[in-house]
Specification:
117 residues; Immunoglobulin-like; 35% strand
């Protein structure tokens, strides 16, 4: 093995393969770790990646396609507001954040933290 060539599409249906020219990878005898260092990708898209391997004899066929969603973190929710309480429970509400990202970045839930003080 003398080199790898990596390709990705633009994250949209039917977009053409584009060679990734700026990357680094760490290697050992079992696995390759890839870091894309200056590729611009858009949150909410599903990018597909393929690779080829090269040695002194030639270039391999394309690898199987790998699909990776790119997402941004969601916007912050509003502050919780007190609704009601009992000796054993507390009810609060908050406004849901806008779920504007395509499937790659869909909101999956909320965490509510409390302070015992």
């Amino acid at each position: 093995m003398t080199d790898y060539t990596l390709f990705r599409n633009e994250g949209t249906v039917g977009s053409a393969w584009k060679q990734i020219t700026s990357y680094t990878y760490l290697t050992d005898s079992f696995a390759k770790t890839l870091t894309l260092s200056s590729e611009t990708m858009v949150a909410g898209r599903f990018y597909q990646l393929v690779s080829t391997a090269t040695n002194v004899v030639g270039i391999s066929d394309y690898s199987p396609v790998f699909t990776q969603p790119i997402a941004d973190v969601p916007s912050k929710p509003t502050a919780p507001a007190f609704t009601s309480s009992t000796k054993t429970s507390l009810t609060v509400t908050w406004a849901a954040v806008a779920n504007t990202q395509p499937t790659a970045g869909q909101l999956t839930g909320y965490f509510l933290y409390r302070d015992n003080g």
